[in-house]
Design brief:
single chain, 241 residues, alpha/beta, Carbamate kinase, two-stranded antiparallel sheet
Length: 241
């Protein structure tokens, strides 16, 4: 059996990752595939924390631009959307007999535990998958920034950023077929070239704390397992392999 390369990871999933072929909401075939892969790596002994976005349900910035919603209100609505996705992922994981806890930065005790760092670490030590919901609990911060913050707080070895492409490119590979894939790139180069890996606050947080990031394609089967087992896929940003 292949041994995992990391003891503790923070997996960042976008809300759009759950869309699949749907125009809105959750594609349950995609949800089940993702949860099956997470369950497999959890059984391998890797401690898994997860931050998931809410863009498949509501994006705060879009509400501001199109709906006239005040920015702070829109951001809180987006945080609540991440809770919906977190509960869906928790249920899917528990269907596979993986003990899972949702910890929310916005207190809602009827559906999730409040986020407390020591409690999160203890859950991970007990082999539970921990899903961090509601971002940082503050407006004007993305779930990318929340992922970097939680990864640092729990002492994760690496952030795994799951995307729809194979890694970090010098241009948008969907729009430009000549786009070059980076196997490894520094945080400084990501910031100076304005590459859309994560927002600048998230990238700076990782850079300042020496936290490596691996960007990989979620849509390829077994890639979560592959990257956790140390296979050279995707792009390494910052330190690492």
């Amino acid at each position: 059996m292949v041994k995992p390369a990391y003891k503790r990871v923070l997996l960042k999933l976008s809300g759009e990752a759950l869309l699949g072929k749907s125009a809105h909401g959750i594609d349950y075939d995609v949800l089940n595939r993702i949860s099956a892969e997470i369950a497999e790596v959890s059984r391998m002994g890797t401690q898994v924390g997860i931050v998931i976005g809410g863009g498949n349900i509501f994006r705060g910035v879009q509400g501001v631009d199109a709906g006239g919603i005040e920015r702070t209100t829109g951001d809180y609505m987006g945080m609540l959307a991440t809770v919906i996705n977190s509960l869906a992922l928790q249920s899917s994981l528990e269907h596979r007999r993986i003990k899972t806890r949702v910890l929310s930065a916005i207190e809602m005790r009827a559906v999730a535990e409040p986020y407390i760092r020591r409690r999160a670490v203890r859950h991970l030590e007990k082999g539970r998958v921990v899903i961090f919901a509601a971002g940082t609990g503050n407006p004007y911060f993305t779930t990318d920034t929340a992922a970097c913050l939680r990864a640092l707080e729990i002492g994760a070895d690496v952030i795994l950023k799951a995307t729809k492409v194979d890694g970090v490119y010098d241009k948008d590979p969907v729009k430009d077929k000549t786009a070059k894939l980076y196997k490894k790139i520094s945080y400084i180069d990501v910031l100076s070239s304005n590459l859309k890996v994560m927002d600048s606050t998230a990238i700076s947080l990782c850079k300042d704390n020496g936290l490596p990031l691996i960007v990989f394609n979620l849509e390829k089967k077994n890639n979560i397992k592959n990257v956790i087992c140390g296979k050279r896929i995707g792009t390494v940003v910052g330190g690492g392999r």
